[in-house]
Design brief:
single chain; alpha/beta; Rossmann fold; UDP-N-acetylmuramoyl-L-alanine:D-glutamate ligase; 2 domains; 10-stranded mixed beta sheet; about 40% helix
Amino acid sequence: MHIVTAKEMYEADRYAMETIGIEGKLLMENAGRAVADKAAERVNKAMHILVMCGSGSNGGDGFVIARTLLGWGYTVRVFQLAPDDKISGDAAYHKQLYQNIGGKIEQWESAASLAAALQESDVVIDAMLGIGVTGKLRPPYDQAVETVNQAGLPVISVDIPSGVPADEGHDGFVGIKADRTLIVAEPKQSLFAQQTASYYGSWEVVDIGLPSQACANSSRYVWGMEETRAHLGERGRFSHKGSHGKALLIGGSQEMPGSITLTTKAALRGGSGLVTTGTVPQAIPSIAAHCAEATYLSLNADDRGRIVLQDVDVSGYDALAIGMGMGREQATADFTRKLVSEANIPVLVDADGLHHLKQDMRILTQRRHPLILTPHPGEMAMLTDFEVKDIIRRPFAISRHFAIEYGVYLVLKGSFTIVTDPEGNQWVNTSGNAGLAKGGSGDALSGILLAQVMQQQNIQEALSLGCYIHGMSADQQVTSNHSMHDLTASDVIDGLATVFRTLS
């Protein structure tokens, strides 16, 4: 499933109409009937449904929805916000069909007239504005949005909540706060942006018959359960511990052994065949008490128990993760940069390791083997010199530019984690919940990602799999044993067994 900008969606529609030959009236009919079918699952025939229509394609969809529901025996009212002369083309055609079967249309007069109609309604279907909106709304739409939001009725939005921009990067908008959004054809970029996602409520995509090649210009994709099941490899009957990768984890310090402990546990539970953890001698007993299945590499430490510059032989290992709980002392940073620049295996860098790399970003472009960075927005801001608010506003654009510029795989963690490959293709993870907003969650994710990187999938597939598995464990734990308040990273790691059983 693609994730599209407004421009890409318009291009897809044009391709379907001009190249394939699908008439716009038919696409609108398909969209309206598909939305009506899903809306009917949420309403009953005792309810009074208010369909709010604007002048464009979204309004045209609304007329199809109203006609369809009316034909099915539902009680439907249409509230039209645009003047009659503003409704043209395919929208006007479907408006006429609605009227031809006896459908009634009420015109916008004032916010008070809308408020009166809302008082007599049980549910609102929002088909006022589509994906072309940017900036502040003009009258009467600004008043209509405010009035609907204040009414407190259940709202089903068509394609996108009216007033919400389709693309990332917009502030200062006023939009419908939908309970459910029935998205037409493909998810829009703003569905996965922090400042706009909450307006959608729950969501579902409806198929309107667009050919798959219509969205070929989009390089953004949704990664969910279907993709995870399709790409998670099976364990062969005759496989052995060497078949599933020998991982080297480096991190920790005398004062911070917990981070690398979590990563080690997650790498073991996440599918690694063998795990070796390199850390300072003072931390090994603490880690080993929790991870009996791992082996350990004792690294040189300073008098405060932090790793110092030294040589580490990575031959015989299949992948390396580094950075968790290391601290940011200069000697430790020198060690990280040296090892990352020399290691001829895939390397994942997280946490303190990202700060170490910031001192010399040339290392990123000079590597000839896969490099994976896993920042949260604060770390991404540090790496790019943007502010955190910029990362949150434009996660797709900033992460894509960074991954292409430095030739790395980037896992930008957040409510919707985005995996970007060195060519700029992007996959958004759909699992996970607010219970993951805890210290240690990122350390657990790093271990799962490293385990998956050593399996049979390509790097991008492995990273997307790891992100989904991590979030799926959190989702299952919250559903069964825990709440979002008490969930810990250890709970997520312990839940991996259930995840893999579910997926097998």
